[in-house]
Design a protein that fits this description.
The protein has about 260 residues and is of the alpha+beta class. The protein has seven helices and ten strands. The protein folds into two domains: about 45 residues, no CATH class; about 170 residues, Oxidoreductase, molybdopterin-binding domain (Sulfite Oxidase, Chain A, domain 2). The N and C termini lie far apart (about 55 Å).
């Protein structure tokens, strides 16, 4: 058999059809073996690399660098003129599926809730839901997508984030690179690039399907940002702040993409 294969590859004569098929088959299997061997080597090599920030919860540095490179590319091509596809409100589902409950502690006192906005000069705004409802109301119906693999067309309403920024004179803050948000109990937190936060479809949301947000959907106020996956739509906003360096992000610390754009 070995001599047959050796002669098959060394021979200068014209091969028969059967010999040609055998030669092509052997060649294909050889390169398939090399490919799988390279994949196994690459997987083992990546597994040996340290994480980007030294934490066991983060992914290995080569993979994190790929995600960071993707973020740089998408930031360069991102445009406020690119809108997520919208639908009529009648297309929205009635029974909305929540995407997680981290940061939604049951001992939360809705009567005393305020959203704290930390300004760059050190001052802090303490805003009630009524303060936000005085601003122009907007709504968006879009296909909410979760990293778990499910999606739903949902209808939300509240204050456009860019309108909120203008109304409270936060233009200096909005000129920074990132927005940081945390829940009142500090258990859940996200960091968002400012371009996405200022996108015309991003809202500080207080209504779902024309009614106040249900408890499990982030009552009294949550973020709806259609250009991102669900992990960025922080529920029950407690504190908002601005930074030029990446704010901490719950799922990015656990190996997910920090940008999480669609």
């Amino acid at each position: 058999m070995a001599n047959f294969v050796s002669n098959l590859f060394r021979s200068n004569r014209k091969l028969t059809v059967d010999e040609f098929i055998v030669k092509k088959t052997i060649t294909s299997f050889f390169f398939l073996f090399v490919f799988f061997a390279a994949c196994i080597w690459a997987w083992k090599w990546v597994r040996r690399q340290p994480s980007q920030n030294g934490s066991r919860s983060d992914i290995h540095a080569p993979l994190r660098k790929v995600l960071n490179t993707n973020e740089i590319i998408f930031n360069k091509i991102f445009s406020e003129n690119h809108h997520t596809k919208t639908y009529p409100a009648s297309a929205a589902v009635k029974n909305v599926r929540p995407n997680g409950n981290i940061g939604m502690s049951k001992n939360f006192d809705t009567a005393t809730w305020k959203m704290y906005v930390i300004r760059t000069n050190g001052d802090t705004l303490a805003l009630t839901l009524n303060d936000l409802k005085k601003l122009p109301k907007t709504d968006v119906t879009f296909n909410f997508k979760c990293i778990e693999g499910w999606n739903q067309i949902t209808h939300w309403a509240g204050v456009k984030f860019s309108d909120f920024i203008k109304a409270y004179g936060l233009n200096a803050e909005a000129s920074m690179k990132y927005l940081g948000l945390t829940t009142p109990d500090k258990e859940y937190y996200v960091g968002i690039d400012m371009a996405s936060a200022m996108h015309p479809q991003t809202i500080l949301c207080y209504e779902l399907n024309g009614r106040p947000l249900p408890w499990r959907e982030g009552y009294p106020l949550r973020l709806i940002i259609p250009v991102k996956y669900g992990i960025k739509h922080l529920k029950r906003i407690g504190t908002m702040y601005f930074a030029n360096n990446r704010p901490p992000d719950y799922w990015a610390e656990r190996g997910y993409d920090y940008y999480s754009g669609l």
